[in-house]
Amino acid sequence: MVTLKSPQEIEQIRAAGAVVAACHKEIRKMIRPGVTTWQIEELVEDVMAGYGARPFTKTYKDYKFATCASVNDVIAHGFPNHTPLKEGDLVTIDTVAELNGWLGDSAWTYAVGELSPIADKLMRVTKECLDIGIRHAVIGNRIGDAMYPLHKHAAANGFSCVRELAAHGIGRELHEEPNFIHVGIPGKGFRFQEGMVITIEPMINEGTWRMKIDDDGWTARTMDGKLSAQFEHTIAITKDGPVILTSQDD
Ligand code: MF3
Ligand code: CO
Question: How far apart, in whole angstroms, are the C-alpha atoms of residue 17 and residue 109?
Answer without folding.
Answer: 17
